[in-house]
Design brief:
Elements: H1 2-17, H2 21-39, E1 43-48, E2 56-62, E3 65-73, H3 81-91, E4 95-103, H4 108-113, H5 134-147, E5 151-158, E6 161-162, E7 171-172, E8 179-182, E9 186-187, E10 196-197, H6 198-210, E11 221-224, H7 241-249, E12 253-259, H8 264-281, E13 285-286, E14 298-305, E15 311-314, E16 318-321, E17 325-334, E18 340-344, E19 357-360, E20 364-370, E21 373-382, E22 394-396, E23 405-410, E24 413-418, E25 422-426, E26 430-436, E27 447-450, E28 468-470, E29 488-495, E30 498-508
Parallel strand pairs: 3-4, 3-5, 5-12, 6-7, 8-11, 16-21, 25-30
Antiparallel strand pairs: 1-2, 2-4, 4-13, 8-12, 9-10, 14-15, 14-17, 16-22, 17-19, 18-20, 20-21, 23-24, 23-26, 26-28, 27-29, 29-30
Helix pairs in contact: 3-8, 5-7, 6-8
The protein binds zinc ion (ZN).
The site of zinc ion has 3 residues, from loops.
């Protein structure tokens, strides 16, 4: 109901913005093409009930080629870690063909408590349930996901070991462990030609799992609950998720049960063999390994000052310290784990200053890198106006004390230069404007232009950072020099086409 309301509201808003039908159609076509780009070979992560204890995370992974959609649900009962830990691996999966919907932890509170249920058994709430609680809301989301899938796996741990005949108290037809459960052998469709043989699907997968099991007593078996049959010994399953899938959504659904008593790793592995088996049966093809080249982004730097307890400083934040303080970057938090480094600009090592203890006497910037890619900065500010008395350490977003400073290299030698200062070079010196050191914003937002030099000849956007500027006679364009004689040049820094800084470059002739 709520959804309907909001979509009606949307439509009327669209009508106001796009009064003409053709515009609306155009917009729709645009959206469609964006959507298809986003969803082919992509993944999305949705969070339901965000901020609540029963937060529900849903991962959708779409292969670049179309195919079947498999829904994997783990942790519907919190004391069955074999299932939810296995599902976790598929949340980070990438696919060539077909789609996955992964809900690793359906019942997070019960997982945190390591108990089967909190208010009610979540796997007994899929039909005629009158009690409303958080489990109801999760079940309502799961019901939708089940009906939009082509196949559903509910990952469990079962007590004892299932056997189709009575062997012992622990191994008999009433037990669940080491079996793949269906609610019926055949899934009947309205057109009988479309009936699906659930038993055949399950047996194919069981064969694959059993290739990995050495102990004969632990082999997987097919376990048909015949849930709706008058003589079924598992009538409680009429209220389960797989029966909902079977009865309402009419899709193949299986309970995967590893025996509770087995070591955790073995249970997780068996679930993985089962999931991989179903992927194969459904012709859903994984990428091995999955490639996900997302844009590197630093979130936090963990920095200590004078060996005190480290503080967390966010991207583009300013850490205000005192002149002479010693800093050490312990780690950075980014959307990658490997290839991370930091450069305390103007100090320390040539490539990587991670864990390096460095004394800071002037304001500078610490740049985070993921391999070659600059993925975020933190500013180190020293308040020079009032150097009397030590000020407490502060982290701020403030724009104070953020004078621009430049990192230059002259014939390979580092030189830090303040804004509006003069630099004297000898004719023939090679100058590189490496970067802007301090300021309030991401240094890549500025344009730093050496007037009279063209860095990128293919695309003269005025940006000259990183290029070698040769000051030899006849290389620079004299008409752009301030004296028109090729002796006084300047570097102009602008932000949104407005000047924010300059460096004056005087080129002296080589002494004879
Ligand atoms: Zn269970």
């Amino acid at each position: 109901m709520e959804n309907n309301k909001s979509s009606q509201k949307m439509t009327s808003v669209f009508k106001q913005i796009f009064p003409f039908k053709w515009m609306f159609i155009l917009l729709f076509v645009c959206l469609l093409s964006i959507c298809s780009q986003v969803f082919a070979g992509q993944k999305t992560h949705m969070v339901f009930f965000e901020g609540e204890e029963n937060e529900l995370h849903v991962y959708r992974i779409n292969g670049s080629l179309p195919g079947k959609t498999l829904l994997i649900v783990g942790g519907i009962q919190g004391d069955e870690p074999g299932g939810f830990l296995a599902a976790d691996f598929y949340a980070d999966f990438m696919l060539e063909k077909g789609n996955l919907i992964v809900v690793p932890r359906a019942n997070f509170p019960s997982i945190l408590k390591m108990e089967r249920k909190i208010n009610q058994d979540m796997n007994r709430k899929f039909s005629d349930d009158k009690i409303i609680n958080y489990e109801t809301r999760v079940v309502n989301v799961l019901k939708k996901l089940i009906c939009e899938s082509d196949c559903f796996l509910n990952l469990h741990e079962g007590s004892g070991i299932y056997s189709d005949k009575w062997e012992t108290k622990f191994k008999n037809p009433k037990k669940f462990g080491q079996s793949i459960i269906t609610d019926n052998a055949i899934l009947e469709k309205s057109d009988p030609k479309e009936n699906i043989d659930l038993e055949k699907m399950a047996r194919k997968v069981i064969e694959k799992i059993n290739l990995h099991i050495k102990d004969k007593n632990l082999l997987f078996h097919f376990n048909n609950h015949r849930t709706s049959h008058p003589e079924s010994i598992h009538k409680e399953q009429l209220r389960s998720a797989t029966y909902y899938a079977y009865k309402v959504c009419k899709i193949p659904a299986f309970g995967i049960e590893s025996a509770k008593s087995l070591p955790l790793e073995q249970k997780v592995r068996q679930h993985i063999y089962a999931i991989n088996g179903f992927l194969e049966v459904l012709d859903i093809i994984p990428q091995t390994p999955g490639i996900d080249l997302k844009k590197p982004e630093m979130q936090y730097m963990i920095i200590s000052v004078n060996d005190a307890i480290p503080v967390v400083v966010g991207k583009m934040q300013h850490l205000k310290i005192n002149k002479g303080d010693m800093i050490q970057v312990h780690d950075i938090v980014a959307n990658y784990e490997r290839g991370l480094a930091v450069d305390v600009i103007g100090l320390g090592n040539q490539f990587n200053d991670m864990k390096n203890r460095l004394v800071i006497n002037e304001s500078t910037r610490i740049e985070a890198k993921k391999d070659f890619y600059k993925c975020g900065s933190v500013f180190l500010d020293i308040d020079l106006k009032d150097s009397k008395g030590r000020k407490p350490l502060r982290i701020s977003e403030s724009k104070q004390n953020s004078m621009l400073r430049y990192k230059l290299k002259i014939n390979g030698k580092l030189k830090i230069v303040d804004n509006y200062k003069h630099v004297t070079l000898l004719r023939g010196d090679k100058l590189v404007i490496e970067d802007i050191l301090t300021g309030d914003i991401d240094p890549s937002k500025y344009v730093v232009n050496f007037k009279g030099f063209v860095g990128n000849t293919n695309n003269n956007n005025g940006e000259d950072r990183g290029f070698v500027i040769d000051t030899s006679k006849g290389v620079l364009m004299e008409r752009y020099s301030m004296d028109k004689k090729g002796q006084h040049y300047y570097i102009l820094t602008s932000l949104n086409k407005k000047e924010v800084g300059k460096i004056f470059i005087n080129i002296q002739s080589q002494a004879n």
